[in-house]
Amino acid sequence: MLELGAKFLLSYFIGSIMGSMVMGRLSGGVDIRTMGSGNAGGTNALRTQGWGFALGVMIIDIGKGVAGTAYVPMLNLPLIGTSPEVSREWLTLTCAAAAVVGHVWPMWHRFRGGKGAATLIGTLGVLQSGLLLPVLGVWVLALLLTGYVGLSTMLAGIAAPLYLATTRLPEDQPIFIYCVAMAMYLVFSHRSNIRRMLAGEENRVTKAMLLRKGRDR
């Protein structure tokens, strides 16, 4: 259990390295948490700083998920070693989840992070790369129909366990449980978007919509 706890914390620490803060430092001290929606994720980075900045943010945030999932579980940590009673599969899933949690609540940045989507994509790319296409497809379709980035992200997250339930159960039950938990966490991290949508105050990307109504907000 010592190995599990130590690697969970290490993945969490990696997840706490915010791509937007790294890019902000490289761009002269920009803090996007003081701009736009106040969120430290890729969507706010795009809206406030443009494509180049947002691309850097996404690469870092996705990379955190990859590192926490693919590399941390394999490490032979000094004085800790490998615990034979710990399932390698569940260790990997735990480290993946820790990276996502670190992104949403980063200890390095006063627990003010993003909403977890990019880092979650990085973990899924390692755990079950076949999920990426259907998840991306749902995200794009939802954006084209609604114009809401947050709603599209939540629906894409929910699509992952639904896709596994119809194609990979019972063989891939652990990854299915992980995807269910992460979908719920993704909805939780987007609760402010849900409140704004219910109040009619959520921004739409109307240029991306198939049926445009009104103007960009």
Question: Which structural traits does this protein have?
Answer:
mainly alpha, 2 domains, globular, 217 residues, single chain, 10 helices
Task: Give the number of DSSP strands.
Answer: 0
Question: End-to-end distance, in Å?
Answer: 50 Å
The coarse silhouette is globular
- Helix percentage: 55-70%
Strand content: under 5%
User: Total helix count?
Assistant: 10
The average pLDDT score comes to 92
Q: How large, in whole angstroms, is the Cα Rg?
A: 18 Å
Domain module tally: 2
Uncertain segments are: none
Briefly note the structural class of the backbone. Answer: mainly alpha
Topology as a string of helices (H) and strands (E): HHHHHHHHHH
The major beta sheet can be summarized as: none
Describe this entry's structure for a reader.
The protein has 2 domains: 1-115, no CATH class; 128-217. It has 10 helices and no strands. With 217 residues, the chain is mostly helical. It has helices spanning 2-15, 19-26, 42-49, 51-71, 88-104, 117-127, 132-146, 149-167, 173-189, 191-198.
